[in-house]
Amino acid sequence: MSPRWxxxxxxRTGRHVVYNLHVHLVFVTKYRRNALxxxxxxxxxxxxxxxxxxxxxxxxxxxxxxxxxxxxxxxxPKVQLSKLVNSLKGVSSRRLRQEYDGHVRHYLWGGHFWxxxxxxxxxxxAPLSIVKQYIENQxxxx
Length: 142
What we know:
The chain is α+β, with helices and mostly antiparallel strands. The chain has one domain: 2-Layer Sandwich (Alpha-Beta Plaits). The chain is built from 4 helices and 6 strands, in the order βββαββααβα. Strands 4-5-3-6 form a 4-stranded antiparallel β-sheet, with helices on both faces. A two-stranded antiparallel sheet has the order 1-2. Strand 1 and strand 2 (18-19) form a beta hairpin. The longest helix is centred in the middle third of the chain and has 19 residues, at 81-99. The radius of gyration is 16 Å and the shape is globular. The model has no long low-confidence stretch (mean pLDDT 87).
């Protein structure tokens, strides 16, 4: 595909592959504690964008509330989704605990920030505009 004309901008090409992979991820704070403020949500998005870039993925959409975050990630087929998730959760947990130590420690203890589980949904069936709209409509009630 020529970079000058691309009717589907989310369709990417690699050396031996053409792909369009999106995943909707939801991470919940440990014990569903209300530890996420607006400032922490903003910083979480910045950190998660950096992690995605390290995986040659793109964080297309981000939103959250006091106890969970939603991400829409466009990722290449060489990325193992579980490794991306582990990195997103691990790096954000470590940095948020360092940067917001007093606040986080008030809500979360035992070295955990995120719940051990997560939601991952393939976005192949729903139009991406619908998934983006859903994530955008998750109001921050902090």
